[in-house]
Specification:
Layout: H1 2-6, H2 14-34, H3 44-55, H4 59-89, H5 94-110, H6 118-135, E1 138-139, E2 142-143, H7 150-166, H8 169-199, H9 205-225
Antiparallel strand pairs: 1-2
Length: about 240
């Protein structure tokens, strides 16, 4: 088991994914509660709202919803292109650099006045959530999303049933890991909601604090413990 643990890169560790899910829950509650009532972590909800707007002939609302959808789309494109350039520098992993970018974006958003257009926060958070989702794909060999919960709910139920039937440790492990991701997301959302009620737009800085923990860990790995493995790809890529 110890040998298997060492075979994973730091950016694949399950606790990094816990951090990412906590931050995602924070950002999700932030954008929906005080930044225009749209979902920026994933786009299924926005596509439903888009369909409803078109069905109600509310073209202004439909155009508005195209903003977060388009930003998410462009974020995915960038997260496919940029890692190749970062890899050539042989200094940091793209995964580490992305968390640094997310932190900077979030800090800037916290300085925006409350009168600033909601679209600024929506576009920015859609970009970083899209890139995060497309970058962090597997937690120690287990495929996972880091910005939304749907698949975690599915996987939790599947592996709970498998564990009840067969009592195998792998199903119990996968059940617990996916359940932890759900708890982390909800925890982040709860904290964000409380902070939004107290501090409004500056509450977004809480997500930066959470992400900094992961960034510091990944930065240390890149510069010290995994310095000679920067060309090694995480699983799932």
């Amino acid at each position: 088991m110890e040998k298997e643990e060492k075979s994973f890169l730091e950016c694949e560790r399950w606790w990094i994914f816990i951090i990412l899910m906590t931050a995602a829950g924070w950002l999700g509650a932030f954008t929906y509660s005080i930044r225009g009532g749209v979902f920026c972590n994933a786009q299924t909800g926005n596509f439903v709202l888009l369909a409803m707007a078109v069905g109600n002939a509310d073209l202004a609302r439909a155009k508005y919803l195209l903003i977060p959808i388009s930003a998410y789309f462009l974020g995915s494109i960038l997260s496919e292109i940029l890692p190749n350039f970062v890899k050539k520098t042989n200094v940091l992993r793209w995964d580490t650099m992305l968390l640094g970018i997310e932190i900077i974006v979030i800090i800037i958003l916290g300085f925006l006045p409350e009168s600033a257009p909601y679209q600024i926060s929506q576009v920015a958070i859609n970009f970083i959530c899209s890139m995060q989702y497309n970058t962090f794909r597997q937690a120690q060999g287990i495929p996972m999303a880091t910005t939304f919960c749907t698949n975690h709910v599915r996987q939790t139920s599947i592996h709970m049933v498998k564990w009840i039937k067969h009592k195998n440790t792998d199903s119990l492990l996968r059940f617990s890991r996916h359940a932890l991701m759900l708890c982390a997301f909800v925890f982040g959302g709860v904290l964000s909601t409380i902070m939004c009620n107290l501090f409004m737009g500056k509450a977004v800085w809480g997500a930066a604090v959470v992400l900094f923990i992961g960034f510091a860990d990944l930065l240390y790995a890149d510069l010290k413990t995994e310095k000679g493995q920067l060309d090694r790809k995480p699983r799932g890529h």
